[in-house]
Design brief:
466 residues, alpha/beta, five-stranded mixed beta sheet, four-stranded mixed beta sheet, 14 helices, 15 strands
């Protein structure tokens, strides 16, 4: 009789401050090894959007017998979770896993374990979420219209980036930054959207003073934006739902009108980070990962274009431990945001025995950890090595779904000596556990110009000048 213990595996680099961590990448590798031994069962997962675009993911399961049912449920449910947040879709069609459809349909329902994911899909596509047997050929992939083409930077442009702890804005003339400013703010739990609106307008006005005219405005922020409409965004998580519908969803359309309807575009901040990375690297296949207030991810494909996927990887599972920490927003366990962000730093502080006031905000706690690292405190080093192990084991899971040549890392967590230690540890995990992948994926951080201005320049390149 097979038991779960047969899928146990040994980590060569167990995170120092997390003895319970069970990386999804190693669990999946062990699952595939067992499937190869017992006989692989092909399964196709088709994700469709209401417009008929979508994608197909091909995978394998263990035989459809009761003794493997628990593993099959875990593997397929976690895979679907990753696909929903990386690619996006509201209708899921399965071939080869009919016995699991009732379980999945219940989990991804308004009253199920994944109710948050159901509500996200419903808000994004207005179509609920259905899981059924069968197959429908997508009419094509969701289109990505933007590429890392610096020729799109002509004219006088404003680029902005809205983060959880600050908003950045730059004035750009023919690709050269003539003004750049970073203003602290605290938007996450602000219930009045006037706070957000006035803050964004203030940054745009500060940048406009440095331009003879404004030809175009491009911006980035965490969340999902469709035709400049806010669908889902952590920046507005504190705004009540009825107020969100009235005053947030069309906020950027209103801001565009305030600027005389110049070309205006706002997109996911991760995609803009990846665009900036592709510009600086001169290559495609770039997964940009920002470890900041949250975990922001974007992707530029091998042809150096945004591919139209969601890439909201803060919510994808990278830890399969039953004791994994729960995300404060979605309630799901083992999500990347708890491991690859300031939230991960704050979570590890008590385990490290650093004496930092838990009442402090997460950005301030990060500064304290960085100061301890500068002072040579080994307790801070353990935090960074733990984060590096998390990242090293997460990369192969990302590579299951993205064709990657580069992983460009940025964000406040990567700043300073601790960031270097974090990257060294991640590369060590890759070399020792996944040597083939280590040879294919180059880890890097942006150069100084890209760090200072890359996000704003890439955002400024988004809207075409009419």
């Amino acid at each position: 009789m097979n038991t779960l213990s047969q899928l146990h595996f040994r980590l060569r680099h167990q995170p120092e401050l997390d003895a319970d961590f069970q990386p999804a990448s190693l669990w999946t590798q062990a699952y595939y090894d067992l499937a190869s031994e017992l006989g692989e069962r092909p399964v196709e997962i088709c994700l469709l959007r209401p417009d008929g675009t979508g994608s197909v993911h091909r995978d394998v399961l263990l035989p459809a017998v009761e003794e493997y049912a628990e593993w099959n449920r875990l593997h397929l449910e976690r895979t679907i979770k990753f696909l929903l947040w990386s690619r996006g879709g509201s209708r899921i069609y399965l071939i080869g896993a009919s016995e699991l459809i009732p379980f999945l349909s219940q989990a991804y329902s308004p009253g199920g374990e994944r109710a948050f994911d159901y509500q996200f899909v419903d808000r994004l596509f207005g179509d609920g979420l259905t899981i059924q047997e069968g197959y429908i050929e997508p009419v094509g992939e969701p289109k990505g219209e933007d590429s890392s083409d610096e020729s799109k930077l002509k004219g006088c442009r404003i680029g902005f980036d809205l983060g959880g702890s600050d908003r950045k804005c730059a004035a750009v003339i023919d690709g050269e930054v003539v003004y750049s400013e970073e203003v602290p703010w605290d938007p996450y739990f602000e219930a009045d959207p006037s706070y957000h609106y006035e803050g964004i307008m203030d940054s745009l006005k500060l940048a406009a003073v440095h331009l003879p005219r404004v030809d175009a405005i491009g911006g980035s922020a965490a969340g999902v934006y469709v035709d400049n409409r806010v669908k889902v965004a952590s920046l507005f998580r504190g705004v009540p739902a009825p107020v969100f519908e009235r005053r947030v969803e069309n906020m950027f359309l209103e801001i565009a009108r305030e600027w005389g309807d110049v070309p205006f575009r706002v997109v996911n901040d991760g995609d803009v980070s990846a665009l900036a990375g592709a510009m600086s690297l001169g290559d495609g296949g770039v997964l940009g990962l920002a470890m900041g207030t949250s975990t922001a991810v974007g992707y530029v494909d091998l042809d150096r274009r945004i591919n139209g996927w969601l890439s909201e990887l803060a919510f994808v599972p990278i830890d399969y431990s039953p004791d994994a920490p729960a995300d404060e927003w979605s309630g799901d366990q083992g999500c990347a945001v708890q491991y690859l962000s300031q939230q991960g730093v704050s979570r590890l502080i008590p385990k490290s025995r650093l004496k930092i006031d838990p009442v402090m905000g997460k950005p301030e706690q990060l500064v304290e950890v960085q100061n301890a690292m500068k002072a040579g405190d080994e307790r801070a080093a353990r935090i960074y090595r733990t984060l590096g192990s998390y990242l090293g084991y997460a990369i192969p899971q990302f590579a299951r779904f993205y064709e990657m040549r580069h992983l460009q890392l940025l964000g406040r967590v990567l700043s300073g000596e601790g960031g270097c230690l974090l990257m060294e540890q991640a590369q060590k995990v890759l070399r020792d556990e996944f040597p083939d992948l280590a040879e294919k994926v180059i880890l890097s951080t942006p150069d100084e110009k890209t760090k200072r201005h890359g996000q704003a320049i890439a955002a400024a390149s988004l809207p075409e000048i009419r």
